[in-house]
Amino acid sequence: MDPTVSPATGHDIKGQDLPTLIDRAAAVLANARGAAEILEARDLAGFAYDIARRAARLATAKRAHDELIAVAHRAQAQALQIESQAKMRLADEYDAAQQRGEVGQPTGRPKVVPDENDLLPPTAAELGLTRKEIHEARLVRDAEAAEPGIVHRTLKEQMERGDEPTKAALRKMVVDAAMRGLRGGGSKKRARNPLHEPNLAFDASAGIDGCCVRITDYLEAHGARFILSGCLDAPMLESSVAKMTRGRDALNTILEAATAQSNT
Question: Which of 38, 76, 91, 235 is the most buried if burial means most Cβ atoms within 10 Å?
Answer without folding.
Answer: 76
